[in-house]
Write a structure and sequence with these properties.
The protein is an alpha/beta fold. The protein has three domains: about 20-155, NusB-like (N-utilizing Substance Protein B Homolog, Chain A, Orthogonal Bundle); about 190-240, Sun protein, domain 3 (Alpha-Beta Plaits), CATH 3.30.70.1170; about 245-445, 3-Layer(aba) Sandwich (Rossmann fold). The chain is about 40% helix and about 15% strand. The chain is built from 17 helices and eleven strands. A seven-stranded mixed β-sheet has the order 7-6-5-8-9-11-10, with helices on both faces. The longest helix is centred in the first third of the chain and has 22 residues, at about 125-145. The protein is globular and about 70 Å long. The relative contact order is 0.09.
């Protein structure tokens, strides 16, 4: 792995921020996540000058936090104050495995001690931080070996998460966890109304950007690039969307004879990626519904960039009386709120945010949405239920329970559970994965006349 450069604390203000400042900010992000804040929100609060480096460090910390917590416990049986614990866990997560380290281990330790000295909350414990980390460098092999039999350290997921996968997927739980820990590629969905795979790959090659075309609308970049710098961003030639998420719109629309008068509902639509895909694939009238007022502007912005139009409504999909005009829909896409357990490759903080009880609570919300939206679908129409979850309660169990409640519902062919899969060298290839993608569940329902 390529090591990141460091800068001296005496360098000019225009230089890269010193590593100790980035470690301080990363520790603060970890503390915020531990207090219940999402990683995205915690990173948004970071000084913009520090944010790119801190995001890279924070993602590496979350992917190695289980091991780091086990090592911290071995080094200090009594948990130190939260700011000190966060700094120790941050540093241990970043240096325990030299193969993954973004910086030289001695540099990380030196800069972590510097970070402790420069923060009033940790200054009194700077010697303790120094002692713990120096001991780790001396005894690394023994300490790592001593934590190897702890599932949370071995798999860097909470114990309840690991146990649930072992129970639900006894033949593939290890491969799922391994793939979930790997860094995903940047996947693009081409807007085939504006470009083609051949033309866009040529544009990327002209700009010196290595990429692979996998399907007519799917492109993987060999290395991540700021999306605003990619050719055609402002013109709406593409959207950033994981390969699994790209399955939604085609699954719902393929085989449906829809004309310009047909009505399609994208429930829980923000940020609008699937809304845009629906519009790219057909000429139907699409209604994009979103409950969160703060996320509605993102739908408008994404559609405007793509040059597409939808009727955007704000409302709770589970309370149609507040927003529905009484006209039945020909197709409904329900990308329901869920644990997001399938997208921890891209949001590694999620595994540490979720609690074992969240799944049942979210399953109740999914049931409410399904039952509320089903009467809005015309006979012969389709509803696609999907979640970015790998837990059975949010996928096959939810679908089976819905079918038991609704005799006019029939299942059509759909992928079902899609397990996370990484194409990285040495990564496991799971049986239902054609591409490198996140974990998803898809259930396609058709409404039969009574």
């Amino acid at each position: 792995m390529q090591r990141l450069p460091i800068s001296d604390s005496t360098a000019p203000a225009t230089a890269q921020p010193p590593l100790w400042r980035q470690l301080q900010a990363t520790s603060a992000v970890l503390q915020a996540q531990r207090a219940g804040q999402s990683g995205s929100a915690a990173l948004e609060a970071v000084d913009p000058a520090l944010r790119p480096g801190v995001q890279a460090l924070a993602f590496a910390v979350w992917r190695n936090l289980g091991r780091a917590m086990a090592l911290r416990a071995a080094l200090a049986r009594k948990a130190p104050p939260a700011p000190v614990d966060a700094l120790l866990c941050t540093t241990l997560a970043l240096c325990w495995d030299p193969a993954q380290a973004l910086y030289d281990e001695f540099t990380l330790v030196n800069q972590a001690v510097e970070a402790a000295k420069r923060d009033p909350r940790t200054l009194a414990q700077a010697g303790f931080v120094n002692g713990c980390l120096r001991r780790f460098l001396r005894e690394r092999a023994a300490l790592v070996a001593a934590t190897e039999d702890q599932p949370q350290a071995r798999w860097n997921h909470p114990p309840w998460w690991i146990a649930r996968l072992q129970a639900e997927q006894p033949a593939r739980w290890e491969a799922i966890l391994d793939a979930s820990n790997r860094q995903p590629p940047l996947a693009l969905r081409l807007n085939l109304r504006k470009t083609t795979l051949t033309a866009y790959l040529a544009e990327l090659a002209h700009g010196g950007i290595a990429a692979r075309g996998i399907a007519p609308a799917l492109v993987y970049l060999e290395q991540a690039v700021p999306v605003t710098r990619l050719p055609g961003y402002a013109q709406g030639w593409f959207s950033v969307q994981d390969a699994a998420a790209q399955r939604a719109a085609p699954l719902l629309l393929d085989g449906l004879a829809l004309d310009a008068a047909a009505r399609v509902l994208d429930a829980c639509a923000a940020p609008g990626g699937k809304t845009g895909h629906l519009l790219e694939l057909g000429d139907a009238r699409v209604v994009a519904l979103e409950q969160d007022a703060a996320r509605v502007p993102r739908i408008h912005a994404n559609l405007q960039r793509l040059g597409l139009q939808a009727e955007v409504l704000m409302g709770d999909a589970g309370d149609p009386a507040a927003w529905w005009d009484g006209q039945l829909f020909d197709a409904i896409l329900l990308d329901a709120p869920c644990t997001a357990s399938g997208i921890v490759r891209r949001h590694p903080d999620v595994r540490w945010l979720r609690r074992a009880t969240d799944t049942a609570q979210l399953a109740q919300a999914q049931k409410r949405l399904l039952d509320a939206l089903w009467p809005l679908l015309r006979p012969g129409g389709r509803l696609l239920y999907c979640t970015c979850s790998i837990f059975a309660q949010e996928g096959p169990q939810q679908l089976q329970a819905f079918l038991a409640r609704h005799s006019d519902a029939a299942c059509l062919p759909a992928p079902g559970s899609m397990w996370p899969r990484s194409a990285a060298a040495g990564a496991p290839v799971l049986d239902n994965a054609a591409y490198d993608h996140d974990g998803f569940f898809y259930g396609l329902l058709e409404k039969r006349a009574r």
